[in-house]
Amino acid sequence: MNKLALLFACCVLGACAGQNAPAPSSAPAALYDEKALPPGPPGELIRYGRELIVNTRSHMRGYVVANLDCAACHIAGGTKPKGGSFAGIYGQFPQWNVRAHRMIALQDRLAECFLYSMNGKPPAYNSREMIALVAYIAYLSRGTPVGATPDPSVKLTKFAPPQPPSVQRGSALYAQQCSACHGAGGAGSAVFPPLWGPTSFNGGAGMHRLGTMAAFVRYNMPQNAPGSLTPQQAYDVSAFVLSHARPKFQGARPVGFPVRPAKYF
Question: Cα–Cα distance between 22 and 40 in angstroms, integer?
């Protein structure tokens, strides 16, 4: 077994072991405390995984085309309840994927994020980056039994709007509540992600689904007053955002990873 794989196995065994493992908490500080990480290389790998989530563009330029970090959709490094939290999801894999029509591993799900949300390409499954991302998610899932349903208070809860979404109402709301951070033209900035245009997520991303974006907006936006929008407003502004052009997912594009000698494994 190669060193990275062995290191990841140690992380997983420590993160998901037994009934005496600490229960996951919805409080970000309790879910991830850098001072409480395992000592040595396992802790370093988990710490690196979080760094990749928070500062994806800086560390993975060759894999990211969109002007986004993973933390744009996974707030506070994936520790915020209803903000793209990773808590408890490690034990949900392998799982059946409707879009792929097959069982997928967590690495496959992360590859989707790079292909759709980042409009880029995934790192190799045996790369240090991919192993670190999985190790970090496994650490945040510690104490959750394999196959258990994540805490409903942590998951993003979808809902239906009282009335059909209105792009016109959403346009006015965007100007009032969103443009200061994301720009009048939706291009974002060095700090805030683009919501449409050539540097945004592509049309295959989960956030391109109206119900998903509305739920995310309802619980997390605007950043300075999350939860202040009504369900109807969340749908209206999401409909406005999604009415704009963005990159098209190139489904026929080949995806491959570097070949490794047999002794690597």
Answer: 20
E runs forming strands in 98-216: 102-104
Instruction: Name every residue whose Cβ is closer than 8 Å to that of residue 178 and which is 6 or more positions away in sequence.
Output: 195, 221, 222, 237
Neighbours of 177 (CB within 10 A): 19
User: Same CATH fold, 167-242 and 3-148?
Assistant: yes
- This prediction has a pTM of 0.87
| pLDDT per position as a tens digit, 175-206 | 999 999 999 999 999 999 999 999 999 999 99
Instruction: Encode burial over 88-108: b for 16+ CB neighbours within 10 A, e otherwise.
Output: bbbbbbeeeeeeeeeebebbb
**pLDDT tens for each residue of 15-66:** 443 333 333 334 444 799 999 999 999 999 999 999 999 999 999 999 999 9
Q: Report residue 194 as tokens.
A: 């683009």
Q: If you ran DSSP here, which 8-state letter would residue 114 be given?
A: I
Q: Which letter does DSSP use for residue 232 in this model?
A: H
Question: What's the topology of domain 167-242?
Answer: Cytochrome Bc1 Complex; Chain D, domain 2 (1.10.760)
